[in-house]
Amino acid sequence: MKKRWLGAMVCGAAGWLAGCVTGPDFKAPEAPRSESHGAGAAAGRTAEARGPGGAAQRFEAEMDLPARWWELFRSEELDTAVRTALTNSPTLAQAQARLRQAQEEFNAQAGAVRYPAVDAGLSAGRQKVNPAAMGITDVPIPDPFSLYNASVSVSYALDLFGKNRRALEALKAQVDRREFEVEAVRQTLAANVVLASIRQAEAERQVALARELVAVRREQREIAEKRHAAGGISAAELERSGQMLEQARAAVPGLESQAARIRRQVAVYQGREPGEAGDGGLDLDRLQLPEELPASVPSEVARQRPDIRAAEAVWHQACANVGVATANLYPQITLTASLGAQQTDIGDMLEKMNVWSLGAGLMQPVFRGGALRSQKRAAVAAYDEAAAAYRETVLRGLQEVADTLGALEADARTLAARTAAANHAQAGLEIATRQKEAGGASQWAWLDEKARQVQAEGERVQAQAARHADTAALFHALGGGWWNRDGADGDGAPGWRMGGGREER
User: Fold this and answer.
1) Rg for the chain (alpha carbons), in Å?
2) C-beta atoms surrounding 7 within 10 Å
3) In terms of CB atoms within 10 Å, which end of the chain has fewer, N or C?
4) What's the distance, CA 295 to chain centroid?
């Protein structure tokens, strides 16, 4: 009876210890409490402008971002560019390789924690024994003989204080971090390709307009030279015409260089050499502006942005490492067992298992010069750092969303004003054309109106491109819709689906 009582106590204590885990348990951080992104953020509907890219954009509370949000621009060329980048990008390949590394490190640790280590050994040696060396003089020296050893050993470290479980938890958090980093790289890459493609389309349009302005100023210069030769204008007016021509010429190389640089950047995004960059790009006027935009709140942004989720995983990993450092202060128990044979005839190895052992070892750190406690304090400091970094990432993400929302409204008003200015300039050019045809206006006056029309159109194109670019920036700032992906999305990246506040693979 006494033995049974003692055995029950031992078993109960072992069960209690097996469930003991040192260190704090990580809790998901609270969502931001604010219900809006601050003053200046768009509330319901943006301004509207007549012409390409001028439609009013509405913020819909029920709208969710699609996984392939770039398809909202309704451009086959843009879709192809993004898909090529997602397939061939070395940056995304690096992130995916880091994810696979983290997964295999977790698998390796999980196997070591959950299962005992089993090793098998086999050895053979030729020996000669001299009994006299051991003080035995009345025994003849035996002949040399062969000795064969075979053994199977098992060892298992009892995780009494949860060190191994915390280490496994840290590695799982690292896997989560890498998964979100892959998605962050993927979304950033897609956004970079979209933004670069829009900038390229704008730059190529601006190059064409700049060349058109040069042609206008060149014709004006020719007229000024003829009028000056006839005594119709002063030398100062002639010089002003030359100044306007050279100013128009000076703008062309920079715009051409900008367009070429963006083309090369898109090629690099797509995993191609800069020399393989194509000459063609998007037609800005054919790019459809998404008229519906998701209206999100800060709490949703904190759960949607992959960079915020990655920062949370880093915080979780630091929390688990505190548990590892704490468990290092407590005893560690290892159980071992072995079974084998030691024979001079190899044929008897499997018939006579004559060597076995059972053992248990306990190791309690006694004095390490304060190293273990310093390691724990360092782990706590790393935990505090990760918490602060998470908070900073959240604030930076919310600011990015708020800034983009404000920019969208400003872009809409700017485009409306510049479209109106371009329309006025076009109307003035048409009036000047009719006057010239009727003989009521000179070629010089018509060229002046043409120059103003070209300059106004350049400003309108700039505003139009900014509206498209900031719309893409908003989609990226909101997380990019990765939670709506179901399975592989054609680029080799893992798929996700959000459910119940957590993501499930």
Assistant:
1) 37
2) 10
3) N
4) 23
pLDDT tens digit at each of 505 positions of the chain:
433 333 333 333 444 444 577 888 888 888 887 766 664 444 578 888 888 888 888 988 888 899 999 999 999 999 999 999 999 999 999 999 999 999 999 998 888 888 888 888 888 887 777 777 777 777 777 778 777 788 888 888 888 888 889 999 999 999 999 999 999 999 999 999 999 999 999 999 999 999 999 999 999 999 999 988 988 888 999 999 999 999 999 999 999 999 999 999 999 999 998 887 776 678 898 899 999 998 888 888 888 999 999 999 999 999 999 999 998 889 988 888 888 787 767 666 666 777 878 888 888 887 777 888 998 999 999 999 999 999 999 999 999 999 999 899 999 999 999 999 999 999 999 999 999 888 877 899 899 999 999 999 999 999 999 999 999 999 999 999 999 887 544 444 444 433 333 333 3
| Closest by Cα among 23, 46, 347 to 167 | 23
Token pair of 126, please?
């030729």
CA angle 44, 48, 49 (to 5 degrees): 165
User: Whose CA is closest to 83, among 193, 245, 177, 1?
Assistant: 193
Domain boundaries defined on the chain: 16-132+140-504
How far apart are the C-alpha atoms of 142 and 164, rounded to whole Å? 51
Other beta carbons less than 10 A from residue 12's beta carbon = 10
Q: Give, in degrees to the nearest 5, the angle at Cα 195 between 191 and 200.
A: 145
Closest CA to 266 of 80, 99, 41: 80
What sign does the CA torsion over 130, 136, 137, 138 have?
negative
| Protein fold of 16-132+140-504 | Outer membrane efflux proteins (OEP) (1.20.1600)
What b/e sequence results for 264-296 when a residue is b if at least 16 CB atoms lie within 10 Å of its CB, and e otherwise? bbbbbbbbbeeeebeeebbebeebebbeebbbb
Cβ proximity of 148 and 108 under 8 Å: no
Both tokens of 132, joined, read 């006299």
